[in-house]
């Protein structure tokens, strides 16, 4: 579930947690398939004694720049990071634990076990697969136009594809398309210049709003998003369309609906986001 705003919130909290300069003293893996690259034994041995130099984000990846290698963490649907100060028995969903030289433990829980950790000497072997960062200076109108003009996909599928734009997921795609008044099933090559301009404005808007409210938590159960400090996000109160089917659209007051598209539940206003009548 964590998308760009949730991952950015986690990264900011990690940066504020006095991790920079800390050395990794011990690594325990409780679910071997959490480790994507390399094998579990090499992962554990190579991480030990490395120092954390920087923590950043690329798309939905948390990026730990270490003294020798780079650690990439993709939380997928239910991955969470948190700290504790004393050795204790692993919880039912704890998959990995790192002991730091200040005797804190950085722990990773993942109820559904989809998250992956990568330890790489060259992070670009993985990160180069990702598309443009939507909050960066390179996310220009011209760049978005060029990407869209090369495609004939439905616009929702296009936006969910991490090879095009990195960090977008189901929540923020639905929100951006609602803001831009574009039906999610529209073909990319059918979008007018005016619509692309609106979409280029909407994508950063909904992402920045998500970050400002520390992410979106859609429930209170353990599988939902929580920050490193255990806080729920607040952006769910700001959503205009996602999971608001049956409620009136805040723009035109027509009833919003939910359909299945790109194998995802997709939320829209059929009046504001018309499929048939477009330029």
Explain how this protein is built:
The chain is α+β, with helices and mostly antiparallel strands and 279 residues long. The chain has seven helices and eleven strands. The strands form three sheets. It has a five-stranded mixed sheet with strand order 2-9-5-4-3, with helices on one face. A four-stranded antiparallel sheet has the order 1-7-8-6. Strands 10-11 form a two-stranded antiparallel ribbon. A hairpin with a 2-residue loop joins strand 10 and strand 11 (264-268). Helix 1 packs parallel to helix 7 and helix 6 packs across helix 7 (193-212).
Set down the secondary structure blueprint.
Layout: H1 4-15, E1 24-29, E2 35-37, H2 40-47, E3 52-58, E4 61-66, E5 70-74, E6 79-84, E7 94-100, E8 105-110, E9 116-120, H3 124-127, H4 141-149, H5 155-160, H6 170-180, H7 193-212, E10 257-261, E11 264-268
Parallel strand pairs: 2-9
Antiparallel strand pairs: 1-7, 3-4, 4-5, 5-9, 6-8, 7-8, 10-11
Helix pairs in contact: 1-7, 6-7
Radius of gyration: 20 Å
Total count of helical runs of at least 4 residues: 7
Name the poorly predicted regions: none
Q: Can you tell me the overall shape?
A: globular
Q: Which band does the percent of strand residues land in?
A: 15-25%
End-to-end Cα distance, whole Å, is 34 Å
Helical residue percent band: 25-40%
Going by helix content, strand content and strand pairing, the class is alpha+beta
Oligomer: single chain
Kindly report the spatial arrangement of strands forming the biggest sheet: 2-9-5-4-3
**Mean pLDDT rating:** 95
Number of strands: 11
**Secondary-structure element pattern, one letter each:** HEEHEEEEEEEHHHHHEE
Largest sheet: 5 strands, mixed
């Amino acid at each position: 579930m964590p998308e760009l705003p949730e991952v950015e919130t986690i990264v900011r909290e990690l940066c504020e947690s006095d991790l920079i300069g800390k050395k990794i003293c011990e690594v325990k893996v409780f679910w071997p398939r959490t480790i994507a690259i390399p094998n579990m034994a090499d992962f554990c041995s190579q991480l030990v004694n490395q120092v954390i130099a920087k923590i950043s984000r690329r798309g939905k990846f948390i990026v730990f720049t270490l003294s020798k290698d780079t650690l990439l963490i993709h939380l997928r649907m239910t991955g969470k990071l948190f700290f504790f100060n004393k050795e204790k028995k692993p919880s039912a969903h704890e998959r990995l634990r790192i002991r730091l030289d200040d005797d804190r433990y950085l722990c990773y829980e993942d109820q559904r076990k989809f998250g992956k950790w990568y330890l790489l000497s060259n992070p670009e072997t993985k990160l180069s697969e990702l598309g443009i960062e939507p909050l960066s200076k390179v996310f220009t109108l011209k760049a978005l136009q060029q990407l869209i003009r090369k495609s004939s996909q439905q616009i929702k599928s296009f936006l969910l594809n991490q090879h095009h734009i990195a960090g977008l997921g189901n929540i923020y795609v639905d929100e951006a398309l609602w803001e831009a008044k574009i039906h999610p099933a529209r073909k990319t090559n059918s979008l007018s210049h005016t619509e692309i301009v609106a979409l280029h404005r909407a994508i950063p808007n909904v992402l920045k709003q998500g970050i400002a409210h520390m992410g979106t938590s859609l429930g209170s159960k353990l599988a939902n998003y929580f920050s490193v400090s255990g806080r729920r996000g607040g952006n769910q109160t700001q959503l205009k369309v996602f999971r608001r089917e049956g409620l009136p659209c805040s723009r035109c007051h027509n009833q919003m609906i939910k359909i299945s598209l790109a194998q995802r539940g997709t939320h829209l206003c059929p009046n504001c986001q018309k499929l048939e009548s477009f330029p």
